[in-house]
Design goal:
The protein is α+β, with helices and mostly antiparallel strands and about 190 residues long. The protein has 6 helices and 7 strands; from the N terminus they run E-E-H-E-H-H-E-H-H-H-E-E-E.
């Protein structure tokens, strides 16, 4: 969870690629919808989701029958333990979030934490790891190379942003803001 927003995080076993889906709530119906989205996303890259390893979350257990209908076998760890691979990635993400927050020259408003969370996951997917060797999980999954040359600012960087349509002729053509998101396909950034 990010604050009070529940999320379903998946880690692709062979590469460590992280896919996160924000949930409306932790009901089994919302989890099933999120798993359908997850399965659909992976299928666009010719990856078939067959097994879902998870903690002993009661709402996921209630969804087991529906997951089986989707062709997904649910493997739940024993009571009182956590699913190790996901928990390790959760720790890594939390540590990177903390490092980013401590390096900002200001206090980040808490409603922007969800953007930081997404930024850290995207960055993690762009980094090589011990499973992937010299290529990032993102490049393996999407089969698209990404040299990152357009990444000119880190999360929370204070910058000027061009406004192509100012409100009136005398308004400034740019405004100051902070970088909160990036889009790999279009190479755009979002600002607050």
């Amino acid at each position: 969870n990010i604050g009070i927003i529940p999320n379903l995080m998946s880690v692709e076993e062979n590469t460590g690629y992280i896919l996160n889906i924000q949930l409306k709530s932790k009901t089994s119906e919302n989890i099933i919808e999120a798993v359908k989205t997850l399965k659909g996303w992976y299928s666009t890259y010719k990856i078939d989701v067959k097994v879902l390893h998870t903690d002993r979350e009661s709402s996921i257990g209630k969804a087991e029958g529906e997951l089986n209908k989707l062709g997904i076998r649910l493997v739940r760890v024993s009571a009182g333990t956590h699913e190790k691979q996901c928990e390790r990635h959760v720790r890594t993400i939390r540590n990177r979030i903390r490092c980013t927050l401590f390096n900002l020259p200001y206090r980040l408003p808490s409603f922007l934490y969800q953007y930081l969370y997404k930024w850290v996951i995207t960055s993690n997917n762009m980094m090589v790891n011990n499973k992937t060797g010299l290529i990032s999980p993102q490049e393996i999954i999407t089969e698209k190379t990404n040299d990152g040359s357009y990444l000119r600012a880190a999360f929370g960087s204070i910058a000027f942003f061009y406004d192509p349509n100012p409100k009136n002729g005398m308004a400034p053509r740019s405004s100051i803001g902070i970088v909160i998101a990036r889009e790999n396909e279009s190479r755009a950034v979002s600002a607050y």
